[in-house]
UniProtKB/TrEMBL annotation:
The entry's keywords: Cytoplasm, Endonuclease, Hydrolase, Manganese, Metal-binding, Nuclease
Top-level taxon: Bacteria
Family note: Belongs to the RNase HII family.
Protein name, as recorded: Ribonuclease HII
Job of this protein: Endonuclease that specifically degrades the RNA of RNA-DNA hybrids.
Pfam family for this entry, one: RNase_HII
Subcellular location: Cytoplasm
One GO term describing the cellular component: cytoplasm
Amino acid sequence: MWTLQSTLQRHGLGPVAGVDEAGRGACAGPLVVAACVLRPGDARRLEGLTDSKLLGPALREEFYYRILRRAEDHAVVVIPPAEVDRRGVHIANIEGMRRAVAGLSNPPGYVLTDGFPVHGFGRPTLAVPKGDLTAACVAAASVLAKVTRDRLMVGLDAQYPEYGFAIHKGYNTPLHEEALAGHGPCPEHRFSFVNVAAAAGVGRPGGVVQNGFPDGDTEVGGEQS
């Protein structure tokens, strides 16, 4: 988990920032992107850190606070549904990663992303396959992004209780589909997604409709990235 980051640090390429997102596959709510720089010697203090999707809610919250206390630097970017619709999920995600890295207090020497390459950071970058499982700083970013987004979805649940956002976090579950069918979408839905567009009765908004589960995201009871 710490090998790649430690190797880059030893070669003078630090600080190393990890970047990850939450909410990419959701059809409602924001896309949240986080960047995180961990202290090289914190492996023992953050033992057990892994991909946020593999941590239960209570353990995610615990790691969230531990990461905030121990991180050398971090930044979180919230991209609203309207921007996701306008740009498309993938482009909005990439732009969010750039904003998150730019939002760090000190420019990192190296950036690690989860899975796919991203350009435009202005510094060396490496796409790490299953980065949230193999690079501690990416895993930390995944926790910051997911906990932030889950809290936002709980807040939206209070505003729109008929949709059950606190339960499924905006992902396409049977409960969510039933609510969409009964109430239609609210302003927090992503109208560029097929199921939302269908529920709104608007067909293909702007000529662009996205898959509710892009790039391998699947329904897992609201625990997706």
